[in-house]
Amino acid sequence: MKFRAIWSLRINSNSKGFWIPVLSYRRRLSLNSFFSRGPKYSEETIKEALNALRDGVILIDKNNKIIWSNENASKWLNLNDPFSQENIRAYFPTSEFDEFLSQSDQNSSLEAISPLNKSIFLSLQIIPLGETEKILVLRDITTPIRLEKVRTDFAANASHELRSPLTVIAGYIELMVEDESIPNNWKKPIEDLAKQSERMKSVLSDLLVLFQLESESRITDEEIVDLQAIVMAVRKDCMLAKKPPKEFKVDFKDSAVILGDEVKIQSIVNNIVENALRYCDKDGEISVNWFIDKAGGHLSIKDNGIGMEEKHLNRITERFYRIDKGRSRKLGGTGLGLAIVKYALQAHEATLEIKSELGIGSEFICHFPVSRIQIEQ
To answer: Which end of the chain is more exposed for a tag (fewer CB within 10 A), N or C?
Structure first.
């Protein structure tokens, strides 16, 4: 399921006292009990204030029926009656919305399309209200979505256009590196050019992979994937690297057969292991573990590298985000690996959990849903 925290509406105990009379005025709740310490407002004033909001606001009961909706919500859902008593699920008939409706995380939001106008994109947020009722807040995010698509399309097209000339340039540089007639004082600069051209090719390659992942919200061609075979192949390559880890442990407690895209899953494992290898020293240790429980399948990739502070954990999967820019460039990498991991996991309805401690190491845990796990008989 795809959740993205686009915005957040926070409520404290005092503000809930405001929302209850605001949204339940049809039930003739006593306003005095909620505003005994502040100014008195009429129900009509509160209604006008809610209708003036740019956001849509809907109050739903324990059966997910609409108790009341403001003007914007009524417009986006084509509600003729703000007290329609219709089930909100009828307007968003997807399993993602059903799951979103049942969760209680106020910091999560779900993107959806307006039932009335397919060109309008909405961000939805659920706010619990008392023991049985909920507030559904809708925000029009059409403009930022379109701007993001324009930006992404431009970057993708630019990457495609740059790939061919860069390949030609890299080819000529490679010929110069192999040319023994090149003066000695030119060899070091040419080698540097070769390294930088290879880095640029890697960045463009990762960008194109990332753009493709961003454009594919779901996997189109599913297949049975042997995760353990992928991990063992990555381990073999890792131990043959110029600076292999001192130890690479693999422990699969359960069958590791996943329904998904083999190329994407291989990319997930590759990028996390490469990241671990990059930040480990000569005594580096990498361990990969897999187990299954009632929540799904869990792949843990742990290292004893330099680790990172907690403040970086929420941003480490952003494109080109670097904790130490100088050190990261020196160690190599494009700054896109973990972003690729995040989107590849999202395509499998999976999530990424990151644990890290500075000077101790990091652990990346991929949580695959039950629907993706194939139990061998």
So the answer is: C
Residue recorded with tokens 């896109």: 336
DSSP secondary structure, 331-343, as one string:
H---S-HHHHHHH
Q: Where are the domains of the chain?
A: 13-140, 144-215, 223-374
From CA 5, how far away is CA 160, in angstroms rounded? 30
Beta bridge partners of 354: 364
Identify the three-state secondary structure at position 261. coil
Mean pLDDT of the chain: 79
From residue 275, give the alpha-carbon distance in Å to each of 232, 328, 365.
17, 10, 14
CATH architecture of the domain with range 223-374: 2-Layer Sandwich (3.30)
C-alpha span between 140 and 55 (Å, rounded): 7
CB 122, CB 112: distance < 8 Å = yes
DSSP 8-state symbol, 65: B
Q: Which two tokens stand for residue 92?
A: 């968003």
**CATH assignment, 144-215:** 1.10.287.130
CATH fold for the domain made of 13-140: Beta-Lactamase (3.30.450)
pLDDT tens per residue, range 100-147: 887 766 667 788 888 878 888 888 888 888 778 888 899 988 888 888
Nearest Cα to 49, choosing from 74, 79, 28, 19? 19
Same fold, 144-215 and 223-374: no
Please enumerate in sequence order all residues whose Cβ is within 8 A of that of 204, keeping only pairs 6 or more positions apart, or say none. Answer: 159, 162, 163, 166
Query: What are the contacts of 45-48 at 24+ separation with CB within 8 A?
Result: 46/21, 46/22
Q: What are phi and psi of 225, to 5 degrees?
A: -115, 130
Q: Which of 274, 263, 260 shows the shortest CA–CA distance to 336? A: 274
